[in-house]
Specification:
This protein is mainly beta. Helix content is about 0%, strand content about 55%. The mean pLDDT is about 90.
Length: about 140
C-alpha cells in the first residue's frame, strides 16, 4: 500500500556492480539500474587498502509532489556520529522512483565497525534506513 510521505528502500553497501546489457528482465530486479546490477555486500569486511571508496545503494520513493526529496547520509563508529553528508538527488524516473548510488572515500575512515544511515526528507516527512559495514586495513 502506498503510504503518505517519502519512503526509502533498505540501504545496501555495494560489493560490486555488474554490467547486465540492455535485455529486459522478466521480473523486475530491485538491484538493477539501467544496464547495471548492484551486488550488495552482506557481511564481508571492506579492505581500505583495496578500495578507494565505499559505495551504497538505495531507492527513494517520493510522495508524488513536484519537490524532489533530499537525502542525508550519517556515519557512526562505536555509536558516535563521526560524519554527515547531504546529496543532491536527480528527479524521479518514469516510474516515480529515484535509484541512487552514493560513494564516500575510504581515506577519511579509520578501520573499524560502522553504521551508515540514510535519511530521505521531502516536505515535512522523512524516512530512514541503516546498514552496517566493517572497514579493515
Amino acid at each position: 500500500d502506498r503510504a503518505e510521505g517519502v519512503r526509502i528502500s533498505d540501504l545496501s553497501v555495494i560489493r560490486t556492480v555488474d554490467q547486465t546489457g540492455d535485455a529486459i528482465d522478466a521480473v523486475e530486479d530491485p538491484f538493477r539500474t539501467g544496464a547495471m546490477r548492484v551486488v550488495p555486500n552482506i557481511d564481508l569486511p571492506i579492505s581500505k587498502g583495496a578500495n578507494a571508496q565505499i559505495s551504497a545503494y538505495l531507492t527513494i520513493y517520493p510522495d508524488g509532489g513536484a519537490r524532489v526529496p533530499s537525502v542525508t547520509f550519517e556515519f557512526k563508529r562505536d555509536g558516535a556520529l563521526i560524519g554527515r553528508s547531504t546529496a543532491e538527488l536527480p528527479p524521479p524516473d518514469d516510474t516515480g522512483r529515484i535509484k541512487y548510488v552514493a560513494s564516500f572515500p575510504t581515506e577519511t575512515f579509520a578501520p573499524g565497525n560502522y553504521e551508515l544511515r540514510a535519511v530521505a526528507t521531502q516536505g515535512t516527512t522523512s524516512a530512514d534506513s541503516r546498514t552496517l559495514f566493517t572497514l579493515i586495513p
